Amino acid sequence: MTATLRLARIAFCLTLLCASERTKAEDSKTEPQVKKELKLEACELGSTYNVHRLGDIYLAGQPSVEDFAIARKDGIKTVINLRTDAELRFDERSVLKGLDIEYHHLPFMAPETLKDEIFEKSLKILGDKKKQPVLLHCASANRVGAVWLVHRVLTDKVDYDKALKEAKEVGLKAPPYEAKAKLYIEQAKAKARNKQPAK
Known about the structure:
Number of strands: 6
Order of helices and strands: HEEEHEHEHEHHH
CATH superfamily: Protein tyrosine phosphatase superfamily
CATH topology: Protein-Tyrosine Phosphatase, Chain A
Strand order of the largest sheet: 1-2-3-6-4-5
Radius of gyration: 25 Å
Number of helices: 7
Distance between the termini: 74 Å
CATH class: Alpha Beta
Number of domains: 1
Largest sheet: 6 strands, mixed
CATH architecture: Alpha-Beta Complex
Shape: globular
């Protein structure tokens, strides 16, 4: 075999190899990217009771001062507290200010104090990627579960039954909180339908 023929064969093989690699690269671009579904999972935050996480949202009972310091090290940027002033054993706002964590206090306890405004503000904060990772807490995560139910249905477009199951896993126990959350969801969906232009 002459040197010229050998070189021609090598060039031909290289051309085939390049074409094959190019096809693979193009195929990988056209293949739909499967978005991995985030899963709610139990996790730990120092001694904090009942901690769960979904992506960059943490849900929990009341953290201690030390637990908030751990949260800061874990990258938490924002805290939403659903407890009333009367329940708090330390100045949470000051502690979080010292840790350079953004603080939002949206207190409620009795079901009638769970106003639409609480849901509205919570949804806005939880849905803001710039504020994440965010920690939403109350005392035991019962109230957290109600807010989580609304967030999952209205923001994440999760089926109500699945969202309710998650909310109960998180800590939702009080039927009146569930009823308030369900009513808010129904009203929000009705409002959205009324805003849609007629076909």
